Amino acid sequence: MKRHYRPYPEYKDSGVAWLGQIPAHWDVRRLKFVARIYNGATPKSTEMDYWGGEINWVTPDDLGSLEGRYISKTKRTLTDKGYASCGATLVPAGSIVISTRAPIGHLAIATKSVCTNQGCRSLVPVKDIDNLFLYFVLYAGKAVLQSLGSGSTFQELSARELGNFPVSFPPLPEQRAIAAFLDRETAHIDALIAKKRELIDLLKQQRTAIISHAVTKGLDPSVPLKDSGVEWLGQIPAHWDVRRLKFMCWLSAVYGANVPASDYQQEGIRFLRTTDIDDYGNLLNENPVYISSEAARDYLLDDGDLLFSRSGTIGRSFLYKRNKHHEECAYAGYLVRFSLRQSYSPEFVFYFTKSTAFADWLGLSVIQSTIGNVNGQKYANMHLPVPPLSEQRAIAEYLDCETARIDGLIQKIEESIELLQRQRTALISAAVTGKIDVRNQG
After folding, report:
1. Which of 163, 238, 374, 428 lies 20 to 30 A from 260 at CA?
2. Which residues of 221-254 are buried (b: 16+ CB within 10 A; e: fewer)?
3. DSSP string across 191-233
4. For residues 34 and 29, what is the distance between their CA atoms, to the nearest angstrom?
5. One fold for 1-8+170-218+390-442 and 27-169
């Protein structure tokens, strides 16, 4: 049940757009007057004796990968010599670290002394400021802080803009009461979100299990099985065959076009890259790129073509369907193309690439270099279980229905998580700007 909170008895105009009306007894101060602000720095990366010591060195990446609001460990650490060589400042436990570029607004409270690189700044609250309350204030003001960033290569929040950022503060005991309330309430919301994410993980496991069973054992549990002769594939129905992918194709293991980013266009032929494909084989449309018809000419996809990623995020697969994707597409060099003969179902083969059997094969086939790689020849020689065409189609249709059902459940849960996250943000903002009175909510 949604809780209702009372407003304060009396308000005044803060004079600050993002704060609006605040309780009459609250003050508005610039951030530089409620916390001492320190910049970060980076020692020379080539000096090995500067790195691997006991001093925690926070970067925006450290902040972005946190699950909670506290940071106690960093990916890289400094030696005393490394710290002395740069202009970073070691701040005490309880300080707040904020990323001020790439991106702006990641936050954490340090549980031990830390310093940062130049992508972060540290805030040490003055004596009448509660650090957890200040954390929630900065969390609520994240969008405003991001809007204050500037720069052509990347957005950066300057020390001046950060220091002049206006925030509102009640007396210290009230700060602590609000912080304790938000700590408790956000923990409750976070626990609900965690349970929903666990449910999503279970549904994803169920999705994989259903696919794996269908493409390796079929839909009829009564059919006799035989040894496939392939260790990672195991037993398959006795009337199925095992074939290498290249013998199922009229076009096998064709690499894509190497087009530099400088030749990308705003329109033309859609150019598919590994990053345009998600783990489910869906086409992502957030940042599409296009190339000229001339550059795409020898790399246009036909209906039913399969693509596999051969480097980077290996194992991703994509089934191109013209009636689904509604545009001509070419593909990039880190992808490899297979065109099946008419006696095979591309949908069935696509679903096989979402099975645990395919994952097992992939694990055995990865070539480790600087980044993982599975070349076109490896994919071409992959063994697949092959039922009769009519059964391939029946399995694909069954899996269309089952995966759509599970994906629909996952989408509903993800939407409920988004709603909880919005409620969490709204609650924090309302409490730290005085729109609700939570002093007696303990």
Report:
1. 374
2. eeeeeeebebebbeebbeebeeeebbebbeebbb
3. HHHHHHHHHHHHHHHHHHHHHHHHHHH-S-TTS-EEE-S-TTT
4. 7
5. no
For residue range 183-205, list pLDDT tens digits in order.
999 999 999 999 999 999 999 99
The rounded distance, in Å, linking the Cα atoms of 257 and 332 is: 5
Q: Please state, rounded to an integer, the average pLDDT across all residues of the chain.
A: 94
The one-letter code for the residue type at 238 is A
Tokens of 253: 């293991």
- Three-class secondary structure assignment of 386-415: ECCHHHHHHHHHHHHHHHHHHHHHHHHHHH
Rounded Cα gap, residues 436 and 21, in angstroms: 11
**Architecture in CATH of 222-386:** Alpha-Beta Complex (3.90)
For residues 99 and 39, the answer to whether their CB atoms sit within 8 Å is no
Tens-digit pLDDT profile for residues 338-370: 999 999 999 999 999 999 999 999 988 876 544
User: 344: helix, coil or strand?
Assistant: coil
Over residues 20-65, the pLDDT tens digits come to 999 999 999 999 999 999 999 999 999 999 999 999 999 999 999 9
User: Which sequence spans correspond to the domains of the chain?
Assistant: 1-8+170-218+390-442, 27-169, 222-386
**Domain covering 27-169 in this structure, CATH number:** 3.90.220.20
d(Cα 396, Cα 381) in Å, to the nearest integer?
23
Q: Give me the CATH topology for the region 1-8+170-218+390-442.
A: Helix Hairpins (1.10.287)
Q: Cβ–Cβ contacts within 10 Å for residue 168, how many?
A: 19
Q: At 356, is the secondary structure helix, strand, or coil?
A: helix
CA dist 126 and 387 (Å) reads 72
